[in-house]
Amino acid sequence: RDELAAAGRAKLAVPYGDAPRRHYDLFLPEGVRQPSLFCGDLERDGQAALVNAEGIYERAAGQWWALGPDEGERFEDVEWLATVDGACAAPGGGLWFGEDRQYVRVDASSMAIFHIAEATGPAVVGEVFGVAIPARDQLLFARERGPDDGEWTPVTFAKGVIESVGASANVLWVLVGNHLYRYDGEWGEADVILPSGADRLLAHAAGGVWAVGDDQACHIGEAPVRLRGIRPMEHFLTQTTDVVVESAGEVVLAVDGEPTTGVAGDEPGLWVFSQLPLGGPGWHELTVTSDAGSRRLSYRVMAGDVSWEIDVQPIYEDHCASSSCHGSDSEDTVDLSTYDAWFDRAIDIQNAVVTGRMPRDAGDEWNGDLVATIVDWIDGGMQP
Fold it and tell me: What is the mean pLDDT of the chain?
């Protein structure tokens, strides 16, 4: 034990929990200096694997087996190892791993290396969809073994370049700009408000996915109670809205603890709350309970009267519209010439003007009143 540790082939007392005795010792096969990645349960006698540039070390049937590239060759630096909810096995068996634009699939009888020039991220695997690889605005699919059994099948996303891909509980999640798509045999767009600057998805073994942004993260997944017409952290310019609840059993909805009566919809499991009173200006809490479960979310009713067209757009045109700043013909900076551009980047813009980072070449005409107008517009609900 001590000799292996001194030789760099053991990691001792690696913690995996808060309790004093929750730790393990990791002993590496001969020739492995440092594992890049591992999957499976290293403590119990189940499937587990270590993968690095020298090769693959897999435990099966209680024994460790060494696999690798041809003699004298190496994999590229291994940066990712695809798993199915934390388990090693990919659809059809075997492992997928790689780095940058190199994708390796290996099992007990074969190894295949794919070089995909347009690839932009790690592969994800799942029983429903097989293998998926992001490639700019496309997702490349292959069942089980990859294109040995057929060509990659592309799915194109018209709304932009894929930011991140994640998979859990046999559901594939794809982040494209501020849009989140899911695939469980059929494609659909998730009706959620993502964190500001969301650019990364982290799979959750219990189901769903975490969307990670600048300074926030939120969990998105299946819920026993589904809502239409209202979303978590949504801002409303009106004090009423139509809400539809989808859930099994009778539904009770309350705003700030005050219950409201709904009407059964035309389809089983649907309850309709027409012109639901949202309350006065400020933050409110909505709770829904049913036989299937419960759900709670917060939203905000806005009271601002500052608009983009009358108040904010003139500020932009006077101070930000040049080609060297944020004009429509800017090549090196973000185009902020439209309402939608300001709406999508509102928090970033607010931080920039409040801290003085924008405008970069502020003249004598730039003052605190203009900053206050922008802040009031954002806090007031960003009216067009």
Answer: 80
Rg of the chain taking only CA atoms, in angstroms:
26
**Structure tokens that stand for 12 in this block:** 């001792």
Q: Report the C-alpha gap between 247 and 271 in whole angstroms.
A: 8
Residue ranges of the chain assigned to CATH 2.60.40.10: 226-301
Q: What is the pTM for the complete model shown?
A: 0.55
What pLDDT shows up at residue 245? 92
Q: Token pair of 276, please?
A: 């639901």
Answer yes or no: is pLDDT of 363 > 90.
no
Q: Which CATH class is domain 226-301?
A: mainly beta
DSSP H or E run through 257: none
When pLDDT is cut at 50, 70 and 90, the band that residue 173 belongs to is very high
ω into 268 cis (within 30 of 0): no
Looking at residue 51, its amino acid is V
Rounded to the nearest angstrom, the gap between the alpha carbon of residue 200 and the centroid of all alpha carbons in its chain is 5
- Residue 215 identity: D
pLDDT over 60 (residue 306): yes
Q: Select from 257, 258, 259, 256 the least CA-distant residue to 271.
A: 259
For 243, the token pair is 């809400």
Closest to 188 measured CA to CA, from 205, 170, 173, 168: 173
DSSP annotation of 77 reads P
CATH superfamily of 2-220: YVTN repeat-like/Quinoprotein amine dehydrogenase (2.130.10.10)
Question: Which residue spans of the chain are classified as CATH 2.130.10.10?
Answer: 2-220
Tokens of 275: 């012109």
> What is the pLDDT, as a whole number, of residue 281?
78
Crossing angle for the helix pair 368-379 and 346-355, to the nearest 10 degrees: 150
Q: In the chain, which residue ranges form alpha helices assigned H by DSSP?
A: 2-6, 313-319, 339-344, 346-355, 368-379
